[in-house]
Design goal:
six-stranded antiparallel sheet; Thiol Ester Dehydrase, Chain A; alpha+beta
Length: about 140
């Protein structure tokens, strides 16, 4: 496995948010792709007992983000924009968000992601634009060896 991909996976796991409410989630990064897996239970629900839209965004954005980040080895990237299409509600289930790079430019990377439920049905999809930020990956503690 590419060392850069392993370091990105470690950055994901070491993020305080992913050690808290998203503990147990899994991110796998490969060339221009990423897969994010999360078991959904009631702690992710809104008042109508289904997954809150913020969780859809987290899954979609992170899958697309890490796919885009797989192609950038010098700078930490940032989400510039992300558009979501909700397809079906989610109750308790195991979800898999798959991200892939669509276009790579000098200044921006466009990536899409799709969330699937445990039956393989699409529950949401989206497309995001990612840009290089000012921080170097080598300056981030979680990225270093």
């Amino acid at each position: 496995m590419n060392d850069h991909y392993q370091r990105l996976e470690r950055l994901f796991q070491e993020a305080p948010l992913n050690q808290g409410i998203f503990a147990g989630s899994v991110m796998k990064v490969s060339e221009s792709k990423a897969v994010y897996e999360l078991a959904i239970d009631r702690k992710y629900f809104h008042a109508a007992n289904a997954m809150h839209g913020a969780i859809y965004f987290k899954l979609l954005d992170d899958a697309a983000y890490f796919a885009a980040a797989s192609t950038e080895t010098e700078f930490f990237i940032l989400t510039k924009s992300y558009e979501i299409k909700f397809i079906r509600p989610v109750e308790e289930d195991n979800l898999r968000a798959e991200g892939e790079v669509l276009e790579q430019g000098e200044r921006e990377t466009k990536a899409r992601s799709v969330i699937y439920n445990s039956k393989g049905k699409k529950v949401a999809e989206g497309v995001g634009v990612f840009v290089k930020g000012p921080k170097r990956l080598s300056d981030l503690a979680g990225y270093k060896d």
